[in-house]
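Sample entry was shown:
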Amino acid sequence: MSKARPRKSLSLRLQPYADSPLAEVIDYLNTFEKEDLNRKIGDILVMCLLPYARLHANELEADLRITCLEACDAMDKHASTMRQALRVPQLQFQPGFVSTPAIDASRSPVPTQDNAAPDPVDDQAQTLRPVIQDKDSIEAVDQLFG
């Protein structure tokens, strides 16, 4: 007789304001059957957060690299499927056009004791904040995901 694998549990309650982007997403998610919803949310969480979870668990660098590449591949495939469904063309590389990222002069490229390496999750949250209008929801997500 085989032993049943132990399960982990996450209970989450989101209550965004009705006119927020998160409320739109929740309305969409509420159209799914519970089993499909759990699978979809699980897939999204693994795709977006597994590399950070493994980094937090001090996985080996080689394993983190593979996990990160697999997650990026999954996100690229998701973005491609979304563009296809919404009939949005993929941006094409234009020869001779070079884009340079904006550099924040207050951040040193090399971490020091006074300037520790930035948290990638925090950087993502900073990027998303202008899109999300609901401050309470932002704080709840920050508390949930670090």
User: Anything to note?
Assistant: DSSP finds five helices and no strands in the chain. The helical segments are 21-29, 34-56, 61-86, 120-128, 135-145. The first helix runs from residue 21 to 29. The radius of gyration is 19 Å.
